[in-house]
Each structure stands twice: as C-alpha cells, then as structure tokens.
Amino acid sequence: MKQWDAIWFDLDDTLIDYERTFRTAIYHCFTTFFSNQAVSFLPWFRVFKAYCDRYWPDYAGGRLTRKEYRRLRFLETMRVFHIKINVKTADEFHAYFDEVVGRFAIALPGIISLLERLQSLSLPLGIITNGESAIQREKIAYAGLCRFFSDDAVVISEEVGCEKPDVAIFRCAQRRLPFGKQPVYIGDSWELDVMGALHAGWRAIYFQQQPASAVSAPSAVICRSVEQLASILLGEPHVMEKRGRRR
Fold this sequence. Notes:
By secondary structure, the chain is α/β, with parallel strands linked by helices. It has helices at residues 18-33, 41-60, 66-80, 87-100, 111-120, 133-142, 157-160, 167-176, 190-199, 226-234; strands spanning 6-9, 125-129, 154-156, 183-187, 203-207, 213-216, 220-223, 243-246. The two termini are 30 Å apart.
C-alpha cells in the first residue's frame, strides 16, 4: 500500500477551500469598508471575481506585481459601480483582508477525515506553501490542521527565502522530513506544484478540481476530488488518470 515515505501538501485549494475562504473574507472586508454604499455584495463580488480571474494570468506571469494586481482588480470593480475610490483605499482594503483572511479559513470537505486516516498509518505529513508566514499559519490554525503537521513540517516561502516552483523549497522540505526518500507532493497548480515537485525529483499528484486545458507528465497522477485523492494515497482500488487539464 505504501508508495511514498512522506506526503506533502499545498495549502490553498488543496487542503483549504480557498474559494470559500476568499469569498467569506472579502464579504467581511466589503461590509466593513462599504456598509453605506448602495451596491450590494453579490453583484459587486461577481464583478470583482471576474477581474480577479481576468488579471490573474498577468500576475502569475510576472507582468503585474502583487500590489498592482490587487489594485487593478479593485479599482476596475469600483469603476463599474461608479464608486470613486483611490489607490490608498485599495491598499487599505487588501491590507485588512490580509489581516483577517486566516480567520475564515476552512478545510475542503473530506480533507480532515483523509488526514486522520493518513496520520493513523504513521505517514509523515507536511505542507509546502508560498505566502506570508503569519497569514498561512493562521489559515492552518483556523482550518483545524495544526494537529496533523508539526511546525518543522510546515514550509512557508517567506520563512525559507525561496518559493515554488524553485527546487530549493522542495530540498528544504525534504531536510525537514529526512526519512522521506520518496516523497510525493499534492497541489492544484501545474506550474508551481506539479512541475516544481517533478523537477526536484519528487512524485506529484495534480489536484485539479476545476476543468481546464490538457497537460501531461509521465510521473504525475491527476485527481479531481478529495475522494479520488484518498483512493490514491491510501492505495484503495482506483483508476488513476495520467493525463489532465491545465488550470
């Protein structure tokens, strides 16, 4: 049954239901900053999310900085609703979002049960995530994940000075769990998670819940649900897909 000596996870959209977390945290920020505005949250959020998705490739591709990306999606949304807002307010909105988002973190349905089963088998478990230390650790805590991962087994890019897909962060992780001679990494990003792990000599599982364009790699397994992931990790009967779609 045991295919891997250590199992490492991405955090957002792999362990944590980030879409739900994001929406709930943004709702809190919206009602805090704009309670007196005539526009209601749902239509505002639909436009905001559309701009998030529209400009994400520019941010992911390095054409926009994180701050530029956040400002652009926010200011464009406000322009649609004819709300006069400045860059300072955009920055304050997102600073407050960073302050509170961890408190709204919730694990994906079925993840806690899966982690309990893996833990009962004494399988070493870890997290590798890009992001700021305080935010990511708060998410882990509020999502109820701390009991599954020791502090040493949580590798956060801000803390170690490198980020996915750099192989250095995977090397750092492997030093944290040195008995993991054949580790596997599970994540929802093809470029950051799957290719990063494969380039580091790891096995990889592409946790792709949303349909996208096709991709493939010889050593990557693709799964589309927590149930499917459990079947793969626990060695239960399962048809494993070797080709998938790109996010």
